Amino acid sequence: MSFKVQMSERTIKILDKCMEEMVLWHFDAINLPILLYQLAVCDDSQLADCLIDDDTIESVADVEGLVLMLLSDKQTELEIKDKEECSENGENKQGNTEEKGDATKEVAERPKRYKSEHDGDLILTDQSGKKHKYPVAQGVGMVFGKLAIMCKENNTTCAEPEHILAVMFDEDIPVLKQLFIETNASYREAKKMFTFACLAEAAKIPVALSSFLTCLNDRVDPSKPCEILMREKETEQIWNISLKKNKRNTVIVGEAGVGKTAIIEKIVYQIVTGTCPETFKDFLVMSLDVNSFIAGTKFRGDAEKRSQDLIVFLQEHDKVMLFIDEVHMLLGAGACYEGEMDLANALKPILARGDTIVIGATTEEEYNRYFSSDAALSRRFERVDVEEPLVSEVYPMIVNKIKALSKFHGVRITKTMVEYIIMIANCFAFEKKNPDKTLDLIDRSMVTAYRRGKKTVDKECVLANFQIQFDTFDGMGEETRKETAYHEAGHYIVARFSERLIKHRLLAISIMPAEGYLGITCFEYKRDVVPFTSKQYFIDLLALDLGGRVAEKLFRKEITSGACVDLNNATRVAFEVITRYGMTADGEDRNTVFLNSDKYPMFSEKTKDHVVEEVQKLIDLAYARAEAIIDEHKDFLDILVRALLKNHIMSADQVESLWQRHLKRKK
After folding, report:
1. Which CATH architecture has domain 391-472?
2. How far apart are CA 286 and CA 318, in angstroms?
């Protein structure tokens, strides 16, 4: 049997190993268990990846043991067959019919060659044109015959080991099915992966890199509208940086949930649809999973090999953009001990030359912690900041994603309900960021509506996701609810009437428990407003934190522990005002800041006492300021408290409407 389809170097290597295994097991030809064994234990085996599972099969060694068991079955089967044939011919040949597993112990010691279903010889050609001859059993001959047909149908000129597996899955080879049964792995899922169509897509990435590199272009459907709207400013910044000659790398910095990865999705969509700059129309965007890159690099040299393979791939493909989420993890990635070459250092040369475009994403905290400690790395990246969208920007930003969610769940949602969800998400998921927290709540609300048989999301479906908070609220006594209402109303009163906190805009007030808070007053900070930076501004800022503490004291006539978080925040701000800005409570212009480092160890015991004294003075001034504002508007404070006890959650519009009605009554 001769084939026009060329065999890759990896395929020839596997077949040569099959020949060695054939001799070891005393077979006359390469049979299906031998072929399957080598496909499972070869380097970078995708079959092994499908079989290995933490709960059942933990390593390639376990896979090897299972396939050896299948080979033992085959050995025993042929021994019995040979013994029966010898008996029929009147010959007295000794065979061995040990239990499966025992055959593997003595196989190397057996001098006898047993019969196999020798169907002929395969004549295969490698990529250099050299021919190779392999004796094969009937099943293997059938697989390679089908391989030639499928390669021709799919315009595949070079057959890889994965193509052989694609044929075996297509033919539902029993020994392959048995292996999946023994390992409790999903045969159906593996069969979906090993098709010529899937392998053609995977061919964009070398097998050695496929475990930690993904082509994002394949995830885009150009016939559908882009789900990522707005973010034009950040996208343009990235394109401009990428068009530079040198140091064409970007690091996207923003809090978790603001949509850093979504910006990359928009970049990829523009490339696939051709709406990107002309230079990038044929580019592929590859996503590097740093965790997967590190996984399995137990021995020294493993990480270096992966790093080198990645660098070679990037150097050979000049139309590739590399995206690295959690890019700060490059520092130390793949190093076995401190000081050893890591992935960040390995990539620095190509980052500086501009041969490869790298886009990373990380948070402000991680950027300051890791990039600031590696000046060479931070110098190779240009920073693009991504801020949390304003509440007014959330709906237009996610409208296409909402349509996709609606189609997926078969549930509709109105714009009014989305705006309600935005408010609720701000109250119940205060620590999270938009648009992620809003999209997550919309998704969960649609699930609730679907399970309740509703075609449209309503308030009940939204609030059902916070039943535990309602249960906690029901368990709060009237005194605790009233105390919480006074506390949150106090924050609002100070912000609303301080006249200096003009950057703060109320979003909502809630006395419902959420994320460790009994209640929350949500503010949004206006981007186009520059706040005062005088000492009086900072006093009002401190008063905002202390307003809840002042207001609840009006109710209880004593200070409670509920305002400890606010007091901590106020203390931190006061400390910054004194040590960083050099402002003092008494107004004296001392032009002094307080450094604290090995080079400038200024925090002596005397200095600490002085700073503590100044911090206390500022907090006392802020507390008095909060008392004055709340006392002046105590009548509206009481009105707002009653409204909160009735409504539990109030939007900014509801609070403003309440204030306007109060003004009319006063007139």
Report:
1. Orthogonal Bundle (1.10)
2. 12
